[in-house]
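Dear Dr. H.,

I hope your travels went smoothly. While you were away I took the liberty of generating a structure for the chain from your last submission, since the lab meeting agenda had it listed for discussion. I wanted you to have the full record in hand beforehand rather than looking at slides cold. The sequence, exactly as received, is reproduced here:
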Amino acid sequence: MLSNTTRLAAIGETAGMVGHDLRNPLQTIINTIHLAKEAMKANPASMPEKDPRVGSALETIREQADFMNKIVSDLQDYAKQAKPTFVLYDMQKLIGDSLSSIPVPKAVEVSSSVETGFPKLSVDPGLLRRAFTNIITNALQAMPEGGKLKIRAWTSQNIAAVSFQDTGIGIPEDVKAKMFNPLFTTREKGVGLGLAVTKRLIESHKGEIKVFSKPGEGTTLTVELPLDLKR
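The corresponding predicted structure, in token form, is as follows:
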């Protein structure tokens, strides 16, 4: 039986190769869809028999291509060792940037608050935004019928904390113990790397992620980062 270290190394190597091979054709598909939609807007008569289903079909293809693109991003992120480039960054902006990159369903109410006097942190904005985006995406997926997502940032002693609290379906104890394992997922779609990547990105900042959840009562994921991170 392969050791855990060997298994993870094999996953990383495979993920890197697959991600590289899929990225270029996926980007071609996405770009071609964009060009087709722009051409249809410029000349509606060019649409076959002016059938609105053509536009709808293109949008469906784009959505699925975006989903595949996310899988490729997760594969590539997991395959490579995160090497943060630290800069002082504003947490309110980081949370806002993360939210703006995700389509939030109308049935979900999102609120965010940052403690007065919350300092700028030494972080890699791109890597941490990726981690926050994964957490927010999981929270939204846990509320298919709608709900509330509350994001809050505060400091305590030498820790900067950001919590993501949803009113979703919650996480059973047996799932909670495995949710950050690579390739573990309870969903029909996805490869189970999103939270594994998230944990790795946070750990690259010398931080940790904590989970509190009860089935039927929602979930809170809290990211804790050191205030005095040594670069």
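Two observations you may find useful: Strands lie at 87-89, 108-114, 121-123, 147-156, 159-166, 208-214, 218-226. The chain has two domains: 4-79, 87-226.

With kind regards,
E. W.
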